[in-house]
């Protein structure tokens, strides 16, 4: 088993910066600051032809090539000592095609580099929305898909299951259009691939008519949440989107219930008027900025320096957020501002194992010597048929564990991981874990077929790096 580790040396900060160091003059660090690499060159092509030329040069020089988006993965997924490519210029809306026989759904094609917060705005301007989203919108669409971003909703799948087409630049230099009915095996491999199959240039997504969500966030006793994880009328099945956060060392949670609002209802009209929106903005500033980011940053800094203060701080944190209820456009409800930087591990486990697994895991998270500062997040997803999806062919529950960027996390993550692995847990591709190819081969039924296709389309390992070799096996 591999240890939790990074690629290269640790460098505080974010993004690329110039640094004089012989051959390498670029230093790249991910959002969390736990992964650093020194690409030989950083390229930001503006056209497919310019991108092909970069690919040709890399292959001719025997160098590897990795695409980077927002750097929001906690693994070395985007790290490289070869050529690093940004697709920020591939961020345009290409087309919107209505789907016949549906109630306003459409196929939307966008450049792979478009960031989710831009995509959400573009969709809203055209009366559309993604049916489900995660709670962070910094990522590029290709990065979110490639790492298996999922959101929450027991009847809803992750983002990759909404993909209906992908345009891919292969190591051969060919640009290939794929879909469930055209180059279908390549399409299946590329939906969740960590960029190991080729460079995704554009993505076609199934989008739905824009909708409002009725959001209800409420502090709730841990026992009440645990009692409602299964059985008739459980929280996950009786709400469109349900998730909760538990604060270690306490009996408190923050439960979130988000449900669709029928268009034109009186409640939605009243809640979206200018006065209500202004009041909501002021309230959100208090909850999301002052408490969830400003004060949270301060308390994490304190507990990182004095771990013994973590339990009483968690008790206060579990009580300071009050209940709130509002109606807003779906993407505004799904997304939460995350300005306190952290590291994260997340596992998808069989949903039926959630309650027992949580109770065992809580004994670890409650250990005072581990000084767990961040709440534990629990979400849900329907089964899907996407290769390498963490919810492939099984209803899943996700347990995400975090620690503050400057805190110790290894012992905590290792203990949690052993519990999740015992029930067949699958790690999220963009979140920290120690599993290698031999471990994952037992968990992902399509991994063997995926690696065969990877060898076929990228025989020289042009798109490989340390992390893809760890999880998929070393490229040929």
Can you walk through the features of this model?
The structure is a single chain. The protein is α+β, with helices and mostly antiparallel strands. It is 30% helix and 25% strand. The chain is built from 14 helices and 20 strands. Strand 7 and strand 8 (106-111) form a beta hairpin. Helix 7 runs antiparallel to helix 8.
* Percent in helix: 25-40%
Describe the global form: globular
User: Over the alpha carbons, how many angstroms does the gyration radius reach?
Assistant: 22 Å
Largest sheet: 8 strands, antiparallel
User: Count of helical segments?
Assistant: 14
Give the end-to-end Cα distance, rounded to a whole number of Å.
Answer: 22 Å
Number of E-state strands: 20
Unreliable segments of 5+ consecutive residues: 6-23
Summarize the structure.
It contains 14 helices and 20 strands. It has helices spanning about 50-60, 115-125, 140-145, 185-190, 220-225, 265-270, 275-305, 310-320, 330-335, 355-365, 410-420, 435-440, 445-455, 465-470; strands at about 15-20, 25-30, 35, 40-45, 65-70, 85, 95-100, 105-110, 130, 165-170, 175-180, 200-210, 210-220, 240-245, 250-260, 325-330, 340-350, 375-380, 395-405, 425. It is globular, with a radius of gyration of 22 Å.
